Amino acid sequence: MKSILKITVISSLLIIGCLLIGACGSDNVVQGKGQLDITTTNSVTTLPLGSVAFQVSKTSGGAYFDSGTTDATSGKVTWTGPTGSIGSHYFFTFSKDGYTTQSYIQSKDLNATGSNVTLDVPMVPTVL
Known about the structure:
By secondary structure, the chain is an alpha+beta fold. It folds into two domains: about 1-25; about 30-125, Immunoglobulins (Immunoglobulin-like), CATH 2.60.40. Helix content is about 15%, strand content about 35%. The protein is built from one helix and seven strands. It has one helix at about 1-20, and strands at about 35-40, 55, 65-70, 75-80, 90-95, 100-105, 115-125. A four-stranded antiparallel beta sheet has the order 3-2-5-6, with no helix packed on it. β2 (about 55) and β3 (about 65-70) form a beta hairpin. The termini are far apart.
């Protein structure tokens, strides 16, 4: 009788453990995956500047592992980083024809539970 009770308790604990692990899917905040809300603007007019390309690396001058473009109208994009990433530093390079390339270091921990970080990027027009 005691061995049946032990088996039942152990089985129940294993099932609960599996359910808890399964609840922490690959892309949710519970797992600690935050987001970076990026907004690009024209530094002179302060209006939103859309279609700005960006590239991301883990080290300054390192190989880019991700890239994207801000929204054509609002100049906004949300970047969530790589799944299962460890660490908090990312190096961003923003570029658009007619504007000076801008570089930023994002050093707030996106992996902290519920972390939402804002990055405002004023793009400086080049003199043509």
